[in-house]
């Protein structure tokens, strides 16, 4: 081991300037970690294309469909910080293997659910199992690779993860053409088996793990905070659930204050607020939440638009988003080069420009009866934007924390995707629900046959698009008018969602532009962070050595 005193005294290289290095059998280790992440990414994305079929099967409301879509992200986002910390303490490989193994029963619960409530539970459980495995993948990349090799590994991990998530609907669409909606929840089982075996064989057992105790109370508070916030957003547009939504928001606010209070006083906090206050860290975290949330939100609304309004088949709807996956895979390696040459700030802003262009395309061009090129254009813009911005968002997190806090960095990187996805899908879903219901009510009130529509039928029409289809089957003489009205109402609701996406990305872009340092200042700050962390690590090692010496003296 190098002398810690000299290491603390010498100005260390920044993460960007460190020599490139990786583990033994680096290629197989990286493949193993990408496959583990693929299990989570596929499970995350397969549900969206099946939402119309699930709605038909359970006569589900739009809120219930929103919860099916967001439940996996909810379970993952609420648990990722705590489970990442447990992996840092008790073994990242153990946590990774446990998460992959438990994903199997979680998938089976979803596949064989007898009600939409059980399906939602299965998805939440699946998200929690992903919280065991998924954060470990980035934590291990950060611990095993250094320098440009780390940047390239993160870029490949990020691009592959995004591409697999984008391809999930294609796989789901193909299955739905031949089997029931239940089939989409078992598609990852063979992949989980392969990922488990490769990770068991190639991933190192212990890498830079801490011996400090885990803040379990902080972990519980983080779960309550994220869970109550996401559920509150989903129930907010339901007129009969306003009290529940307000209660959930109050719980979230209380949990925020309790979590901060706990982290400021805990001897070994779950989330080191001093590290989180670092400008590179928190701006990158916010930027990633918005950009990855935009991808998930666009897929969530887009799949329903393609099937409900353009009347694509499930396979056609799944294949329609392939341009986004291709764009991410092509652009992400270039993103790593731009980060090295121009810094993370420039790369993030460039990605934001393309994401905004994608939402503007959806807002202005995604109408009834449009040609496919307009659909593809919107997805290409979003895919390029996520491919550009994803690498610097993740790289800045891992580069600005000490190696002993790799779990915190990887947990935050996962929060970018999962909290971002849960928030944006929930917000988009709430706006879609409210806009759809308002448009249906306006259409009914303006109809010459309004007096013939009783309260029960009106409630069913406002419930969701799939419920409107069920009503159309009950009243075939009005079927065309009902479907046309439901499609118009859906278009009204999704316009609200796309506008919200534009606003969110513009806010994120402003935060990055004004708060994230330019390249030279970024490298200077990273060097300062690294020196500070090495000094703290040396002090910890000296204290541990002194304590061990004291114990030896007592034993003698």
Largest sheet: none
- CATH architecture of the largest domain, please? Up-down Bundle
CATH superfamily of the largest domain: MFS general substrate transporter like domains
- What is the beta-strand fraction? under 5%
The poorly predicted ranges are 1-16
Task: State the total count of DSSP E strands.
Answer: 0
Mean pLDDT: 81
Total discrete domains: 2
Structural class by sheet pairing and helices: mainly alpha
The CATH class of the largest domain is: Mainly Alpha
Please state the overall shape, judged from the principal axes of the Cα atoms.
globular
Helix coverage percent of residues? Answer: over 70%
Can you offer a commentary on this structure?
Helices cover 81% and strands 0% of the residues. With 556 residues, it is an all-alpha fold. It has 2 domains: 16-214 and 270-439 and 478-531, MFS general substrate transporter like domains (Growth Hormone, Chain: A); 215-269. The two termini are 27 Å apart. 54% of the residues are buried. It is globular and about 90 Å long.
From the structure above, extract its key features.
556 residues; 20 helices; disordered N terminus; Growth Hormone, Chain: A; 2 domains; globular; mainly alpha
Mind sketching the topology for me?
Elements lengths: L3 H6 L16 H33 L3 H29 L1 H20 L4 H29 L2 H32 L10 H14 L13 H20 L6 H24 L7 H4 L2 H30 L5 H6 L2 H21 L1 H22 L6 H28 L6 H40 L9 H9 L1 H10 L4 H37 L3 H37 L1
Helix pairs in contact: 2-3, 2-5, 2-6, 2-7, 2-11, 2-18, 3-4, 3-5, 3-8, 3-16, 4-5, 4-7, 5-6, 5-16, 6-13, 6-15, 8-9, 8-16, 11-14, 11-15, 11-16, 11-19, 13-14, 13-15, 14-15, 14-19, 15-16, 16-17, 16-19, 17-18, 18-19
